[in-house]
Amino acid sequence: MRGSVRTELAITGQPPAERADAARNRRKILDAAAGLVAERGPEAITMNAVAQAAGIGVGTVYRRFGDVAQLLFALLDDRERQFQEGFLSGPAPLGPDGRPAERLRAFLHALADHVAEQQTTMLAAEAASPLARYTSGAYLTMHTHVSMLLRQVRPEADEAVLAHLLLAPFLPSLFRHLTAECGRSPEQIKAGIDQLMGLCAGELRGFCAE
Predict the structure, then answer these.
(1) What pTM does this model have?
(2) 39-65 b/e (C-beta count within 10 Å ≥ 16 → b)
(3) Which residues belong to any copy of the HTH tetR-type domain (predicted)?
């Protein structure tokens, strides 16, 4: 709903308060999944394989994470929290003290680096459940953040749609295609985003003119 975007958001991805035994099981499951990814790649992640590696019943794994996609997204939480801390409370130009146009550019550049670092696990999560991305806490936080900045840069725009469109180039499968198959580096992708948005010297032009 337009007009409902908050000025800043809380960092998402924080696990809810839970009993000590539940927290231990959650940690065992995530550690086991991380070990499988490190040893054999994210394609090795199945609920049965994780349960066996963790020494926990597969029913417990399903109750905690639901499916492989949710488990893979949970593996990204720690890195996601660090990324969110940067754009929600870090220094300018990425953090709150930066100008809106500069913050938007800095955010998209930081997102390119973030996806480059995590793309293997992100790609596996996308393959397991393509639409899960759009309902995950991480994506909703990014979308609300970009919407907020767009409202400050161009109040008359449909910021919700524009935010989705600005985040679309960072779909893990597209990012992998650009880097692995097209031979583009994250720096070249950042330059392409700048050109696409008409960015020049940190100022938005064209559809995002201040």
Answers:
(1) 0.70
(2) eeebebbebebbbebbebeeebbeebb
(3) 23-83
Cβ atoms of 71 and 47 closer than 8 Å: yes
Provide block-wise average pLDDT over 10 residues at a time, the chain (210 residues): 44 63 89 87 89 95 90 80 90 94 94 89 83 87 95 90 92 92 94 78 44
CA distance 208 to 199: 9
Place of tokens 């524009």: 162
CA distance 190 to 108: 8
Opening angle at CA 204, ends 199 and 210, nearest 5 = 165
The whole-angstrom separation of Cα 49 and Cα 141 is 31
CATH 1.10.10.60 assigned to domain 20-74? The reply is yes
Q: What is 76-208's CATH number?
A: 1.10.357
